[in-house]
Amino acid sequence: MRKRFPILAVLFLAAGCATRVPPPATLKEGFITPEKAWANVLSQFVDEQGRIDFAGVAKSPSDLEAYVAYVAQTSPASAPQSFPTRETKLAYYLNAYNALAMYNAVRVGIPPELDSIKTKFFYSTRFQFGGNYLSLYALENKVLRPMGEPRIHFALNCMVRSCPRLPREPFAAETLERDLEREAKQFFTEERNVRVDSEKKTVKFSEILRFYTEDFLKAAPSLIAYANRYREEKIPEDFKVEFIPYDWTINKP
Hints:
Mean pLDDT: 92
Number of helices: 11
Oligomer: single chain
Low-confidence stretches: 1-16
Strand order of the largest sheet: 1-2-3
Shape: globular
Number of strands: 6
Distance between the termini: 22 Å
Largest sheet: 3 strands, mixed
Helix content: 40-55%
């Protein structure tokens, strides 16, 4: 989830109007592997800037539905033997979050922006993971964040413009460290996420760094120090930190 709410109020609302979304009934005929289905979606409907052709997904949903059906049937909780390492679990959850966020955006009719439906989109709508139902909020905050990897915040994509760039290939356990490093470097080199004003001695970061400050400060003494891990042009530590307002517009071409 990409913005804070008064937690008690949101949880109360979500509990009272939770919606369980049934997964697609069957896997696609001729379906080879779930990873291939999700790879097809990313390569076909995501461009080099990470923008998503939602209309194209809606017209040809079979690969996305196949992957969502797989997530519903199989998870690290329901099939631990299939996810023996931390990397296999992380890759699964990152791909599942991104696929379900895309599926959710198409399911609700590709809204122009998510700001007015954040509670429904992230909290009260729940998807099946290996037989258990979770919201996108719960997946991120109750499952992924406790795994102690702050770079997930540069890999999770909620389908809006201020999200990190959506890669055109799935995350894989075998290359996860390299993939997360790539996404972190990409994030901190984009001007939309980091704006340095040397005259005013100010740096403006994406609000992602405000939403999840505690995660980044577990890995570095300051937000600037964390950002400098991934930047060639370092930001002076004495600069004032401000934040760029989050853009909740759906990220389509």
